[in-house]
Protein backbone atom coordinates (compact mmCIF):
# COMPACT_ATOMS: atom_id res chain seq x y z
CA UNK A 1 0.00 0.00 0.00
CA UNK A 2 2.74 2.45 0.99
CA UNK A 3 4.45 1.94 -2.37
CA UNK A 4 1.35 3.31 -4.12
CA UNK A 5 1.11 6.44 -2.01
CA UNK A 6 1.83 9.88 -3.43
CA UNK A 7 5.21 11.47 -2.80
CA UNK A 8 3.81 13.81 -0.13
CA UNK A 9 2.15 10.93 1.72
CA UNK A 10 5.24 8.75 1.38
CA UNK A 11 7.30 11.52 2.93
CA UNK A 12 4.98 11.63 5.92
CA UNK A 13 5.12 7.84 6.33
CA UNK A 14 8.91 7.82 6.18
CA UNK A 15 9.01 10.44 8.94
CA UNK A 16 7.20 8.12 11.38
CA UNK A 17 4.53 10.34 12.89
CA UNK A 18 4.92 8.80 16.35
CA UNK A 19 8.71 8.94 16.30
CA UNK A 20 8.68 12.58 15.26
CA UNK A 21 6.00 13.44 17.84
CA UNK A 22 3.71 15.10 15.31
CA UNK A 23 0.66 16.93 16.65
CA UNK A 24 -1.38 17.35 13.48
CA UNK A 25 -3.50 14.32 12.71
CA UNK A 26 -3.40 12.43 9.44
CA UNK A 27 -6.00 13.66 6.92
CA UNK A 28 -8.66 11.80 4.97
CA UNK A 29 -6.93 12.76 1.73
CA UNK A 30 -3.73 11.13 2.94
CA UNK A 31 -5.68 8.02 3.89
CA UNK A 32 -7.27 7.71 0.43
CA UNK A 33 -3.84 8.01 -1.18
CA UNK A 34 -2.40 5.43 1.22
CA UNK A 35 -5.23 2.88 0.78
CA UNK A 36 -6.14 2.12 -2.85
CA UNK A 37 -8.98 -0.17 -1.67
CA UNK A 38 -10.58 2.59 0.39
CA UNK A 39 -13.56 4.06 -1.47
CA UNK A 40 -15.06 7.48 -0.74
CA UNK A 41 -18.49 6.17 -1.66
CA UNK A 42 -18.23 3.57 1.14
CA UNK A 43 -17.51 6.27 3.71
CA UNK A 44 -20.43 8.29 2.30
CA UNK A 45 -22.64 5.20 2.61
CA UNK A 46 -21.64 4.82 6.27
CA UNK A 47 -22.39 8.50 6.85
CA UNK A 48 -25.83 8.06 5.26
CA UNK A 49 -26.51 5.00 7.41
CA UNK A 50 -25.56 6.95 10.54
CA UNK A 51 -28.29 9.47 9.65
CA UNK A 52 -30.81 6.65 10.18
CA UNK A 53 -29.37 6.05 13.64
CA UNK A 54 -30.36 9.21 15.55
CA UNK A 55 -28.56 8.17 18.73
CA UNK A 56 -25.16 8.22 17.00
CA UNK A 57 -23.09 11.42 16.74
CA UNK A 58 -23.54 12.94 13.28
CA UNK A 59 -20.47 15.17 13.04
CA UNK A 60 -17.88 12.39 13.27
CA UNK A 61 -14.58 13.16 11.50
CA UNK A 62 -14.09 11.37 8.21
CA UNK A 63 -10.77 10.06 9.51
CA UNK A 64 -12.56 8.16 12.31
CA UNK A 65 -14.91 6.46 9.86
CA UNK A 66 -11.92 5.54 7.70
CA UNK A 67 -10.15 3.95 10.67
CA UNK A 68 -13.23 1.89 11.49
CA UNK A 69 -13.89 0.85 7.88
CA UNK A 70 -10.24 -0.11 7.39
CA UNK A 71 -10.22 -2.15 10.61
CA UNK A 72 -13.20 -4.10 9.24
CA UNK A 73 -11.38 -4.83 5.96
CA UNK A 74 -13.75 -2.50 4.09
CA UNK A 75 -16.83 -4.60 4.91
CA UNK A 76 -19.77 -2.18 5.19
CA UNK A 77 -21.97 -4.30 7.48
CA UNK A 78 -19.07 -5.10 9.79
CA UNK A 79 -18.19 -1.39 9.83
CA UNK A 80 -21.73 -0.47 10.89
CA UNK A 81 -21.51 -2.90 13.81
CA UNK A 82 -18.11 -1.54 14.79
CA UNK A 83 -19.38 2.06 14.66
CA UNK A 84 -22.19 1.11 17.03
CA UNK A 85 -19.90 -0.60 19.54
CA UNK A 86 -17.19 2.04 19.21
CA UNK A 87 -19.35 5.03 20.11
CA UNK A 88 -21.66 3.24 22.55
CA UNK A 89 -18.83 1.71 24.57
CA UNK A 90 -16.81 4.92 24.64
CA UNK A 91 -19.88 6.87 25.80
CA UNK A 92 -21.11 4.37 28.39
CA UNK A 93 -17.72 3.50 29.86
CA UNK A 94 -16.55 6.87 31.23
CA UNK A 95 -14.03 5.18 33.52
CA UNK A 96 -12.00 4.36 30.39
CA UNK A 97 -12.95 7.09 27.93
CA UNK A 98 -13.63 10.34 29.79
CA UNK A 99 -11.41 12.94 31.47
CA UNK A 100 -8.55 11.98 29.19
CA UNK A 101 -6.22 14.85 29.98
CA UNK A 102 -2.83 13.31 30.70
CA UNK A 103 -2.16 16.24 33.06
CA UNK A 104 -4.91 15.12 35.45
CA UNK A 105 -3.38 14.12 38.82
CA UNK A 106 -4.74 10.55 38.75
CA UNK A 107 -3.39 9.91 35.25
CA UNK A 108 -0.01 11.45 35.99
CA UNK A 109 0.15 9.28 39.13
CA UNK A 110 -0.72 6.11 37.20
CA UNK A 111 1.79 7.01 34.47
CA UNK A 112 4.43 6.56 37.17
CA UNK A 113 3.07 3.07 37.96
CA UNK A 114 2.77 1.68 34.43
CA UNK A 115 4.79 2.17 31.25
CA UNK A 116 3.22 2.31 27.80
CA UNK A 117 3.71 3.66 24.32
CA UNK A 118 3.67 3.06 20.59
CA UNK A 119 6.92 1.82 19.08
CA UNK A 120 8.06 4.04 16.20
CA UNK A 121 9.66 1.37 13.95
CA UNK A 122 7.08 -0.93 12.37
CA UNK A 123 7.54 -4.69 11.95
CA UNK A 124 8.53 -5.96 8.48
CA UNK A 125 4.80 -6.44 7.80
CA UNK A 126 4.14 -2.80 8.66
CA UNK A 127 2.47 -3.63 12.00
CA UNK A 128 2.35 -1.05 14.78
CA UNK A 129 3.61 -2.32 18.15
CA UNK A 130 2.13 -1.07 21.45
CA UNK A 131 3.84 -1.98 24.74
CA UNK A 132 2.41 -1.93 28.26
CA UNK A 133 4.06 -2.98 31.53
CA UNK A 134 4.50 -2.13 35.20
CA UNK A 135 7.26 0.14 36.43
CA UNK A 136 6.18 0.04 40.08
CA UNK A 137 5.38 -3.43 41.38
CA UNK A 138 3.40 -2.56 44.53
CA UNK A 139 -0.21 -3.73 43.87
CA UNK A 140 -1.75 -0.98 46.03
CA UNK A 141 -0.50 1.63 43.55
CA UNK A 142 -2.10 -0.08 40.55
CA UNK A 143 -5.48 1.34 39.43
CA UNK A 144 -6.93 -0.81 36.66
CA UNK A 145 -9.35 1.74 35.18
CA UNK A 146 -6.68 4.44 34.96
CA UNK A 147 -4.23 1.95 33.49
CA UNK A 148 -6.74 1.01 30.77
CA UNK A 149 -7.54 4.68 30.19
CA UNK A 150 -3.86 5.40 29.57
CA UNK A 151 -3.53 2.36 27.30
CA UNK A 152 -6.56 3.50 25.25
CA UNK A 153 -5.14 7.02 25.07
CA UNK A 154 -1.78 5.72 23.85
CA UNK A 155 -3.53 3.80 21.05
CA UNK A 156 -5.77 6.75 20.11
CA UNK A 157 -2.80 9.12 20.01
CA UNK A 158 -1.03 6.76 17.62
CA UNK A 159 -4.13 6.40 15.44
CA UNK A 160 -4.52 10.18 15.36
CA UNK A 161 -1.14 10.80 13.73
CA UNK A 162 -0.36 7.50 12.00
CA UNK A 163 -3.83 6.65 10.73
CA UNK A 164 -4.40 3.23 9.24
CA UNK A 165 -1.66 0.61 9.29
CA UNK A 166 -1.75 -3.06 8.19
CA UNK A 167 -2.06 -4.30 11.76
CA UNK A 168 -1.42 -3.84 15.48
CA UNK A 169 0.54 -6.01 17.90
CA UNK A 170 0.35 -5.62 21.69
CA UNK A 171 3.25 -6.48 23.98
CA UNK A 172 2.15 -6.96 27.60
CA UNK A 173 4.99 -7.61 30.04
CA UNK A 174 4.19 -9.63 33.19
CA UNK A 175 7.38 -8.64 35.01
CA UNK A 176 6.42 -7.59 38.54
CA UNK A 177 2.79 -8.75 38.27
CA UNK A 178 1.60 -10.35 41.50
CA UNK A 179 -1.60 -11.93 42.78
CA UNK A 180 -2.37 -8.59 44.42
CA UNK A 181 -2.67 -6.99 40.99
CA UNK A 182 -5.12 -9.67 39.86
CA UNK A 183 -7.26 -9.11 42.94
CA UNK A 184 -7.58 -5.43 42.01
CA UNK A 185 -9.24 -6.26 38.68
CA UNK A 186 -12.94 -5.52 38.33
CA UNK A 187 -14.96 -8.21 36.58
CA UNK A 188 -17.35 -5.62 35.17
CA UNK A 189 -14.57 -3.41 33.85
CA UNK A 190 -12.79 -6.42 32.34
CA UNK A 191 -15.95 -7.30 30.43
CA UNK A 192 -16.27 -3.78 29.02
CA UNK A 193 -12.58 -3.73 28.10
CA UNK A 194 -12.79 -6.97 26.14
CA UNK A 195 -16.03 -5.93 24.42
CA UNK A 196 -14.30 -2.82 23.12
CA UNK A 197 -11.08 -4.66 22.27
CA UNK A 198 -12.87 -7.30 20.22
CA UNK A 199 -15.73 -5.39 18.62
CA UNK A 200 -15.01 -1.66 18.84
CA UNK A 201 -11.27 -1.02 18.63
CA UNK A 202 -10.64 0.38 15.11
CA UNK A 203 -7.45 -1.55 14.32
CA UNK A 204 -6.58 -4.80 12.62
CA UNK A 205 -5.34 -6.77 15.62
CA UNK A 206 -2.61 -9.23 14.62
CA UNK A 207 -1.24 -10.48 17.93
CA UNK A 208 -1.13 -10.16 21.72
CA UNK A 209 2.16 -11.26 23.22
CA UNK A 210 2.51 -11.83 26.95
CA UNK A 211 6.16 -11.50 27.93
CA UNK A 212 7.86 -12.94 31.02
CA UNK A 213 4.98 -15.28 31.79
CA UNK A 214 4.93 -16.99 35.18
CA UNK A 215 2.65 -19.60 36.81
CA UNK A 216 0.39 -16.70 37.83
CA UNK A 217 -0.70 -16.44 34.19
CA UNK A 218 -2.99 -19.43 34.74
CA UNK A 219 -4.95 -17.48 37.37
CA UNK A 220 -5.10 -14.41 35.14
CA UNK A 221 -6.37 -16.41 32.17
CA UNK A 222 -8.98 -18.05 34.43
CA UNK A 223 -10.31 -14.55 35.16
CA UNK A 224 -10.20 -13.09 31.64
CA UNK A 225 -10.86 -16.11 29.42
CA UNK A 226 -14.68 -16.00 29.81
CA UNK A 227 -14.65 -12.60 28.08
CA UNK A 228 -12.46 -13.67 25.16
CA UNK A 229 -13.78 -15.05 21.89
CA UNK A 230 -11.95 -17.83 20.05
CA UNK A 231 -10.61 -15.42 17.45
CA UNK A 232 -8.97 -13.31 20.15
CA UNK A 233 -7.62 -16.33 22.04
CA UNK A 234 -5.94 -17.51 18.85
CA UNK A 235 -3.93 -14.27 18.76
CA UNK A 236 -2.50 -14.66 22.28
CA UNK A 237 1.07 -15.94 22.61
CA UNK A 238 3.01 -16.58 25.81
CA UNK A 239 6.75 -16.10 26.22
CA UNK A 240 8.41 -17.50 29.38
CA UNK A 241 10.05 -15.44 32.09
CA UNK A 242 13.70 -14.69 31.45
CA UNK A 243 13.65 -15.65 27.77
CA UNK A 244 11.50 -13.70 25.37
CA UNK A 245 13.47 -14.72 22.28
CA UNK A 246 10.43 -16.64 21.02
CA UNK A 247 8.71 -13.29 20.38
CA UNK A 248 11.27 -12.46 17.69
CA UNK A 249 9.34 -14.65 15.27
CA UNK A 250 6.57 -12.04 15.44
CA UNK A 251 8.30 -8.85 16.61
CA UNK A 252 11.95 -8.21 15.70
CA UNK A 253 14.38 -6.70 18.25
CA UNK A 254 14.26 -3.37 16.38
CA UNK A 255 10.65 -3.03 17.60
CA UNK A 256 11.30 -4.01 21.23
CA UNK A 257 12.48 -1.72 24.06
CA UNK A 258 16.00 -2.25 25.35
CA UNK A 259 17.08 -2.61 28.95
CA UNK A 260 15.68 -5.74 30.62
CA UNK A 261 13.62 -6.53 27.50
CA UNK A 262 16.89 -6.66 25.51
CA UNK A 263 15.55 -5.05 22.35
CA UNK A 264 17.41 -2.63 20.10
CA UNK A 265 15.48 0.47 21.18
CA UNK A 266 16.05 2.66 24.25
CA UNK A 267 14.69 1.13 27.46
CA UNK A 268 10.95 1.16 28.09
CA UNK A 269 11.14 3.88 30.75
CA UNK A 270 12.79 6.28 28.31
CA UNK A 271 10.25 5.47 25.58
CA UNK A 272 7.40 5.79 28.07
CA UNK A 273 8.54 9.18 29.39
CA UNK A 274 8.90 10.53 25.85
CA UNK A 275 5.42 9.25 24.96
CA UNK A 276 3.83 10.84 28.03
CA UNK A 277 5.46 14.19 27.25
CA UNK A 278 4.19 13.98 23.67
CA UNK A 279 0.65 13.13 24.82
CA UNK A 280 0.65 16.32 26.90
CA UNK A 281 0.63 18.16 23.57
CA UNK A 282 -2.48 16.27 22.42
CA UNK A 283 -4.85 17.51 25.13
CA UNK A 284 -7.02 19.37 22.60
CA UNK A 285 -7.34 16.25 20.45
CA UNK A 286 -8.54 14.16 23.41
CA UNK A 287 -10.97 16.85 24.56
CA UNK A 288 -12.46 17.15 21.07
CA UNK A 289 -12.62 13.38 20.64
CA UNK A 290 -14.63 13.05 23.84
CA UNK A 291 -17.44 15.13 22.33
CA UNK A 292 -18.57 12.35 19.98
CA UNK A 293 -21.14 10.68 22.20
CA UNK A 294 -24.26 8.60 21.70
CA UNK A 295 -27.58 9.98 22.92
CA UNK A 296 -29.45 7.05 24.43
CA UNK A 297 -32.71 9.03 24.56
CA UNK A 298 -32.76 8.98 20.73
CA UNK A 299 -31.88 5.33 20.27
CA UNK A 300 -34.30 3.18 18.30
CA UNK A 301 -34.91 0.16 20.51
CA UNK A 302 -32.96 -2.87 19.34
CA UNK A 303 -32.44 -6.03 21.35
CA UNK A 304 -29.01 -6.53 19.80
CA UNK A 305 -27.70 -3.01 20.34
CA UNK A 306 -24.34 -2.43 21.99
CA UNK A 307 -26.08 -0.53 24.79
CA UNK A 308 -28.28 -3.57 25.52
CA UNK A 309 -25.19 -5.78 25.46
CA UNK A 310 -23.41 -3.54 27.96
CA UNK A 311 -26.51 -3.37 30.19
CA UNK A 312 -27.03 -7.14 30.08
CA UNK A 313 -23.37 -7.74 30.88
CA UNK A 314 -23.47 -5.34 33.82
CA UNK A 315 -26.54 -7.03 35.34
CA UNK A 316 -25.11 -10.53 34.98
CA UNK A 317 -21.77 -9.45 36.41
CA UNK A 318 -23.41 -7.81 39.42
CA UNK A 319 -25.15 -11.13 40.10
CA UNK A 320 -21.86 -12.98 39.65
CA UNK A 321 -20.06 -10.68 42.08
CA UNK A 322 -22.85 -11.09 44.64
CA UNK A 323 -22.64 -14.86 44.32
TrEMBL record:
This is Alpha-tocopherol transfer protein-like isoform X1. The lineage of its organism: Eukaryota, Metazoa, Ecdysozoa, Arthropoda, Hexapoda. One of its GO terms (cellular component) is membrane. Residues 103-257 form the CRAL-TRIO domain. GO terms for molecular function: phosphatidylinositol bisphosphate binding. The gene is LOC103522002. InterPro entries: CRAL-TRIO_dom, CRAL-TRIO_dom_sf, CRAL/TRIO_N_dom_sf. It comes from Diaphorina citri.
